[in-house]
Design brief:
Blueprint: H1 9-26, H2 28-40, H3 42-89, H4 93-109
Helix pairs in contact: 1-2, 3-4
Amino acid sequence: MRSPPEISISQLLQVFLVVALLCIVLNPELRALIFFVDAIGLEIAFMLVALQARVVGAALATAALSLAATLCEAAHHIGRAAIATYPAEVNSRKLHRVLCPILIGLSYGVRCNAAHPSSC
């Protein structure tokens, strides 16, 4: 029985280099980017990318904060609606011991201050 051929790291790097060069040659946008980076310098190109990352990061943080406030308010309203219909729907005492604290926690305990941060 034959064993599979051994592939060295240098052969993998050579194949990767050929594929990367083919991508650069066949894609005109990448060629233009290479000329642009060559013209302005690598340090300034990295600085521009870092600046864009900061702006996108700030926008993502704001979106996450807004989403968190919306989800907390939705959980609060769902808990209030469930607590309003709870006594009519639950007949089992064992289920009552489990569901009651969960519903009270959802309806009264879940209040996010993400939308209205405290001003100290």
